[in-house]
Amino acid sequence: MLRRALIGVVALVAAGLFGWLVMSALARLLSTPAAPLPEPATTESPAVAPPVAVEPAAGPHIKATLFFAAGDGQRLVGVQQDVPLAEGTVAQARALITALLAAPAGEATLVSTIPEGTTLRGVYVSDRLEVFVDLDAAVRTNHKGGSMQELLTVYSIVNTVTVNLPTVSAVQILIDGKEADTLAGHVDLRRPLRKNEALILTSDSTQSPS
Amino acid sequence: MLRPATVLACLCLALTAAADGWSQGSPTTLTLLSREGRRAVPVSMINNQEYVAVDDLAGPFGTTAREAAGGLTITARGRTIIVTADQTVVSAAGRLVSLPAPSLKRDNRWLVPVDFLPRALAVALETRLDWRRASRLMIVGDLRVPRVVARIESGASGTSVTFEISPVTPARVSAESGRLLVQFEADALDLLVPPLPQQPFLAGIALADAGTTVAVTPGPRYGAFRSSTSQPDASSSRLTLDLLPGATDLAGAAAAATAAPAPAPPPVDLRASLPPSPATGVRTVVIDPGHGGDELGAQGPRGSLEKEITLAVARRLRTLIEGRLGMRVFLTREDDRTISHDDRSAFANSRQADLFLSIHANAAVRSNIKGAEVYYLSVERADAEARKRAEDAAVILPALGGGTRAIDLILWETAQARYLEQSAALAVAIEESLRSRVEMSPRAVQQAPFRVLVGANMPAALVEIGYVSNPDQEQQLGSADYQTAVAEALLEAIVKFRAQLERTAQ
Prior knowledge:
- The complex is a heterodimer.
- Chain A is an alpha+beta fold.
- Chain A has a domain at 60-179.
- Chain A is built from four helices and six strands.
- Chain A has helices at 2-31, 88-101, 138-141, 147-164; strands spanning 61-69, 76-84, 120-125, 130-135, 170-175, 178-179.
- In chain A, strands 3-4-5-6 form a four-stranded mixed β-sheet. A two-stranded antiparallel ribbon of chain A has the order 1-2.
- In chain A, helix 2 (88-101) crosses helix 4 (147-164).
- The longest helix of chain A has 30 residues, at 2-31.
- The radius of gyration of chain A is 19 Å and the shape is globular.
- Chain A starts with a helix and ends in a 31-residue tail after the last strand.
- Chain B has helices at residues 4-20, 55-61, 116-125, 255-259, 306-325, 341-350, 381-392, 420-435, 451-454, 471-477, 480-505; strands at residues 28-34, 37-46, 49-53, 64-68, 71-76, 79-84, 89-92, 95-98, 104-106, 109-113, 129-132, 137-140, 147-155, 158-166, 171-176, 179-184, 190-192, 202-208, 213-218, 222-233, 236-245, 284-289, 328-331, 355-362, 372-377, 394-398, 404-408, 440-448, 460-467.
- Chain B folds into three domains: 4-140, Copper Amine Oxidase, Chain A, domain 1; 147-259, Immunoglobulin-like (Sandwich); 284-505, 3-Layer(aba) Sandwich (Aminopeptidase), CATH 3.40.630.
- In chain B, the strands form six sheets. Chain B has a seven-stranded mixed β-sheet with strand order 9-10-3-2-1-12-11, with helices on both faces. Chain B has a six-stranded mixed β-sheet with strand order 23-22-24-29-25-28, with helices on both faces.
- Classes of the chains: A alpha+beta, B alpha+beta.
- The A-B interface holds A 69, 72-75, 111, 113, 144-149, 151-152, 170, 181-182, 184-191, 193-194, 198 and B 290-291, 295-299, 306, 340-341, 360-366, 368-369, 373, 375, 380-382, 441-443, 446-452, 454, 462, 464, 467-469.
């Protein structure tokens, strides 16, 4: 009796879980039809990959350098990762930021600098090749504060775009579609920011997760 | 600290000078005044200029000198000063410093003008050396040494002694064993007393008790005293002692005063208002306690709030600056309130502050990260171009009553850009002072596009005094010891920066 009940419960939970995964995947697809799905580089870490995203990213890729907080917590470190190839600056920048918003893959020493729950609302480009990255309010409300953390958050985004798209002159972060004063009270976000090389860990900085 | 050897050296120099006949006056001394005490250094008069021998600096300052190719290389705390004979310019730690008279080499002794000490040696030692010519005091480091100039006026009904004190320094008057003592809240006094006029109320004025008290010895007809204070201007205060006749002369009123020594009046506090110290490049400081109100800033694992820590440190720093340097200090917020970045820099600009210090506590992605950091503004290329424009363009405006006048237009957005070099020097001074007191982060001085610094129209820095995200540092940041250590370091940095500004101004 007990055994049968237990199996029933397990089956029910499994079905529920599967249903939720499908629904949430559908919801994401429907809400942001233009944005490609995040590619969490599952090839390197198959053990933690959820069942709905088992297959490795299809289609052509670029080897991009994404910037995460380095082990010293005071610099950014570039990590090589496959990011889907996209047509044009806007689409490619969107693919880069989407990959950056997903947690750093497989490297226990690297930490994402972007607050949990942050989503990308849109990406624009000006005719002066300044890219505008529009994030939702979670990037501010979930930010833990501190100028060092804020610098790393801002420049992981700025550097990820400018390093991989050399034609981009500068990047401005928007919050909820609007120009922002600062993210957490320190870094001036009112203008596009250029690549910050001083924050990048230099010696053997580019690590590969594989 | 005045050792027999110094006196001997002084005598030797006197003899040499007399024998050679190049001295145009009798050699005297100057007094080095430091936390360690007083020490005399011989001074020679040559061509109406006061000179000290380089050899005599070795003892008090630990300098070494080495002669090479017509010049002398003096090493002080690892930095070098290059002196050339008959030249009025010396190179101190890579910077050219001009002196009022040439350095000289006489009888195998190198002599430098007294101004060599505050202008060149101070640069190498990174210490403030303040030369008070009138009282022949060379003040070493950050000591509170107010100048006290006595003025004596005698009349039939008493004698009044007026002390002109600058900068404003608290003092108290008491009567003790037949003397009147004026105790100053200072490390030493720079006291100047004129010759006493012939009168029966005052017998003498002299320094007493470790040099921070002035003892006034009354004369035979003295019976009682009256003291009053006033503040003629922002940078000085005045303390007047009226020495009055005894009861036999002054019926009734001072009857009690004759029997016993005059009762001590309540302590005289001259700290009525805290004015700027005169003649320096830094008179007003604005301290900006980071965050506040709805903006909590970073939070520690035990719940410490950055906005509370920054306000506490800002308050401690204000007390120190006002008490020791006598500068005007303003806080952008006195309590827990939300203020915009523009309002913070506007506050400093409208008060014409000479220095802007924003105080913050940091947070990191990892809890093990700790240490203090100092930031000054980084400027994007576009801003640098705007800066150039701002420097070039003075705006010509019609003036009242006809004609035109040029107005120096400063774009709000680029106000800080023109102070970047000074701000960098300020950041380095802060880093050095902090390093001797608290743990520093591996990246101690950095540039960043910090919003609050952009509009500051004066040298400005942002100090991250520690990581509140680190459990140990969270505890430190809340403690009085750590907060005081940070405030002391910032005070020292302000003194160093001020000295640097004064040297560049010369």
